[in-house]
């Protein structure tokens, strides 16, 4: 069995801005793979990421990236991490090719490989046709894609993206999500911070949710959704009234009602319900068109968690 | 290597900027204006409007001392935004998030300064060469080539020092205008401290006795407005045209028109400060037929310039380190 490789570790990480506590005793472990770092606005995501990049000094606690302390050895961390800030600011008087070339020089890519690597990356993010145009003529989405490309220069071990879809229109978001999926296929470790949960849900395997600087939930996306599932089933049948009557008489059904054309059932015993439903429908002559367990979205999980903490969704 | 990449990026950016060419044109015009002015005035004739007598050796000094501050201004204008622009546009975060040390960033920026200083120093030497040949007094005990080379070296060092100061303020302020104001104020402060010494320096030039006397009588007779213009001109250019006080004139050696150097008493704190008094003396020393008299002084000036440039860079490094550690947009 392969040992679990920890990419990021924080221990009681705390950061104050004056009297404001931005990060509050944050302890987390991020493993290899794609991890979403979620939270509402001002939850402390960007502050945490900047500490991880060695761009901010924590007030107390410590952070490690690949076991390296970014406060003590920031250059080593930056050599292994490709970073895209929340508001990417390129040199607008350069063109895309020049910008990536410049980044490649800073990342120590050998002159022989530079041109090939930069050309490939521009192709990957779909900017080849615009590579010689000034960045100031690029759309916001193109700048985001260019910055995702710069995170890949020099083939870093980890890619850290802070709100990669912020300010993008739906089409731009789709492009970025597709890129993230490609990164997943390439086997890259990616740490994505976002307050837009839908997109992270589509791209990440694991999530960390923070609020007011504290970690409130972590784990595999699918398992979290299952844990927060209501347990209700949506059933589509040709005779909803008949099936409703039959189900309401069963001991393993807690509640049942109709909603639009669907029959909503909340079983008291999930296993008995799944075994019994087919028998009942067959006996009562009802045809089952579809039956699915209602799963919450990550957004639903997030909202319920924040509400439980007495917080407001911004 | 990384510093070179940063410098390369900045130099490309600089060469595309209008302000760089504006600076070259501005400094060239200042120098050419002085030349034209002197040609019109001729040897010992009176210059209309200013009432200044010009001797050939003093003219060389004037060309140099007027041109050098102009060139320094040009370097400042070209570089005032070298770091402040990165900060105001937020590109500094792009730079900070790469595996680049603070030292490489500062050194890269300083290399860009070096490039510009080189361009303007070459321009300076070119203008001086034109001045010398135009006046037909290019002869020097050290030879015209070494004279120009010495000038080039002095101008380069001096501009690098001012460039270092601009880099320091550029790391503090986000607005390039603030950088310009701060550097000019520091420079002006040094000029004010030195004003009496500048007077002495001019007075100590061969053939300048008559000039000093003429300047004194002209300024005494001048209206307040003209005096203020002279003062402002001196502060902005980092050079002061002042009349020689009677007390000072009388304390000077009687053989001012000869080629003998005058020992100037300096406040110890400012002895090695890089202001153009030292550059003037270097020129005077080099054009003098008796050049070995104060041979150590230019060396001390060079050391002072190198030292103070290193100080500006060190302070810039401290500031950039702090900016990186509290990197907030």
Explained architecture:
The complex is a heterodimer of chains A (314) and B (329). With 314 residues, chain A is α/β, with parallel strands linked by helices. Chain A folds into two domains: 6-227, Rossmann fold; 233-293, Alpha-Beta Plaits, CATH 3.30.70. Chain A has eleven helices and 13 strands. Chain A has helices at residues 45-52, 74-80, 96-106, 111-124, 140-152, 170-185, 197-203, 221-227, 240-248, 270-283, 298-308; strands at 6-17, 20-31, 34-38, 60-65, 81-84, 158-162, 189-194, 206-211, 214-220, 233-237, 253-259, 262-267, 288-293. Chain A has a six-stranded mixed β-sheet, sandwiched between helices. Chain A has a four-stranded antiparallel β-sheet with strand order 11-12-10-13, covered by helices on one side. Chain A has a three-stranded antiparallel β-sheet with strand order 2-1-4, with helices on one face. In chain A, helix 3 (96-106) packs across helix 4 and helix 6 (170-185) runs parallel beside helix 7. The model of chain A has no long low-confidence stretch (mean pLDDT 85). Chain B is mainly α. Chain B has one domain. Helix content of chain B is 73%, strand content 1%. Chain B contains 13 helices and two strands. In chain B, a hairpin with a 4-residue loop joins strand 1 (46-47) and strand 2 (52-53). In chain B, helix 7 runs antiparallel to helix 8 (176-203), helix 7 runs antiparallel to helix 12 (276-287) and helix 8 (176-203) packs across helix 10 (224-237). The longest helix of chain B has 34 residues, at 102-135. Mean pLDDT of chain B is 61; it is low at 41-55, 137-142, 194-212 and 229-298. The chains are: A alpha/beta (314), B mainly alpha (329). Chains A and B meet through helix 2 and helix 3 of A and helix 1 and helix 5 of B.
Would you summarize the structure shown here?
With 314 residues, chain A is α/β, with parallel strands linked by helices. Chain A is built from 11 helices and 13 strands.
Shape by Cα distribution of chain B: elongated
What is the arithmetic mean of pLDDT of chain A? Answer: 85
Note the total helix count of chain B. Answer: 13
User: Spans of chain B of 5+ residues with little confidence (pLDDT < 50)?
Assistant: 41-55, 137-142, 194-212, 229-298
Question: Largest sheet of chain A at a glance?
Answer: 6 strands, mixed
Helix segment tally of chain A: 11
């Amino acid at each position: 069995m392969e040992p679990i490789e920890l990419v990021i570790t924080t221990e009681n990480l705390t950061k104050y801005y004056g009297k404001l506590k931005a990060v509050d005793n944050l302890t987390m472990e991020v493993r290899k793979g794609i991890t979403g770092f979620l939270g509402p606005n001002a939850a402390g995501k960007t502050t945490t990421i900047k500490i991880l990049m060695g761009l901010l000094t924590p007030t107390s606690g410590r952070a490690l990236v690949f076991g390296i302390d970014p406060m003590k050895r920031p250059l080593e961390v930056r050599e292994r991490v490709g970073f895209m800030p929340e508001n990417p600011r390129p040199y607008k008087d350069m063109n895309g090719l020049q910008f990536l070339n410049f980044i490649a020089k800073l990342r120590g890519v050998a002159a022989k490989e530079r041109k090939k690597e930069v050309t490939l990356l521009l192709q990957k993010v779909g900017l080849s046709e615009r590579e010689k145009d000034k960045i100031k003529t690029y759309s916001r989405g193109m700048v985001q894609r260019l910055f995702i490309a710069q995170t890949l220069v020099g083939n870093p071990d980890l890619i850290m993206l802070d709100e990669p879809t912020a300010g993008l229109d739906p089409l731009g978001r789709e492009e970025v999500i597709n890129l993230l999926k490609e990164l997943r296929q390439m086997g890259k470790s990616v740490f994505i911070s976002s307050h837009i949960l839908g997109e992270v849900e589509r791209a990440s395997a694991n999530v960390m949710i923070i609020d007011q600087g504290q970690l409130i939930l972590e784990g595999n996306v699918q398992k979290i959704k299952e844990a927060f599932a209501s347990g209700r089933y949506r059933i589509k049948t040709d005779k909803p009234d008949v099936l409703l009557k039959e189900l309401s008489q069963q001991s393993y059904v807690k509640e049942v009602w109709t909603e639009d054309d669907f029959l909503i059932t909340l079983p008291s015993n999930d296993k008995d319900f799944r075994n019994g439903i087919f028998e009942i429908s067959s006996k009562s002559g009802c045809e089952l068109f579809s039956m699915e367990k209602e799963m919450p979205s990550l957004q639903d999980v997030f909202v319920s968690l924040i509400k439980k903490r007495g917080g407001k969704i911004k | 290597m990384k510093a070179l990449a940063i410098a390369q990026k900045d130099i490309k950016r600089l060469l595309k900027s209008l302000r760089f060419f504006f600076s070259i044109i501005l400094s060239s015009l200042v120098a050419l204006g002085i030349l034209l002015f002197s040609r019109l005035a001729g040897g010992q004739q009176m210059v209309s409007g200013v009432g200044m007598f010009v001797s050939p050796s003093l003219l060389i000094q004037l060309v140099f001392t007027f041109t050098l501050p102009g060139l320094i201004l040009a370097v400042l204008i070209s570089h005032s935004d070298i770091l402040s622009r990165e900060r105001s546009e937020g590109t500094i975060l792009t730079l900070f998030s790469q595996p680049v040390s603070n030292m490489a960033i500062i050194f890269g920026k300083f290399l860009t300064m070096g490039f510009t200083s080189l361009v303007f120093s070459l321009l300076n030497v070119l203008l001086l060469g034109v001045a010398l040949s135009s006046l037909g007094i290019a002869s020097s005990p050290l030879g015209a080539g070494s004279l120009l080379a010495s000038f080039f070296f002095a101008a380069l060092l001096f501009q690098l020092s001012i460039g270092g100061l601009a880099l320091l303020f550029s790391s503090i302020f986000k607005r390039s205008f603030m950088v310009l104001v701060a550097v000019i104020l520091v420079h002006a402060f040094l000029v004010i401290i030195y004003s009496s010494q500048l007077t002495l320096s001019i007075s100590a030039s061969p053939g300048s006795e008559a000039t000093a006397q003429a300047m004194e009588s002209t300024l005494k007779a001048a209206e307040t407005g003209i005096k203020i213009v002279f003062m402002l001109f001196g502060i902005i250019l980092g050079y002061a045209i002042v009349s020689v006080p009677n007390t000072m004139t009388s304390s000077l050696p009687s053989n001012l028109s000869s080629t003998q150097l005058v020992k100037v008493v300096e406040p110890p704190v400012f002895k090695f400060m890089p202001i153009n008094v030292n550059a003037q003396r270097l020129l005077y020393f080099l054009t003098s037929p008796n050049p070995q008299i104060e041979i150590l002084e230019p060396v001390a000036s060079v050391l002072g310039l190198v030292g103070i440039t290193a100080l500006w860079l060190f302070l810039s490094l401290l500031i950039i380190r702090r900016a990186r550690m509290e990197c907030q947009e």
